[in-house]
Amino acid sequence: MSRNSRFSKATKLKVIHEYREGHKEPLQIFEEFNINKSTVYRWNNLYEIYGSAAFDTKPRNRAYSKTDKISAVKEFMDGEYTVSLIMKKYIITSSSVLEIWIKNIMAMRNSMIMIRKVRYTWPKIAKQRMKSA
Within 10 A of 40 (CB to CB), how many other CB atoms are there? Predict the structure, then answer.
């Protein structure tokens, strides 16, 4: 996957400046730059966290600790924070990152439940087979 953005850093900063300063109506900005409103909101959130450095080209993705991933998913699942607040708290640049964490942690949780069920039922099945043999 390419790291080249469709929009330059200067364009992103111009969009954010116009959005934040209220020089234009949001709808005008979306139409002028042919950009989705959710993209502008995401850029604005990134700008609030990182400033203009948010739009620098990065050589690789940010790494997150296992503890942060689990904490972020738990806080979301418990309803403690919204997705945007969790993104700000853990400095996550995209909601899709959190979605992947949720999916992975839920899959691990479900597989652990299955392992527990197998561990619980397997001795019973083995005893029944031995009795019938």
Answer: 19
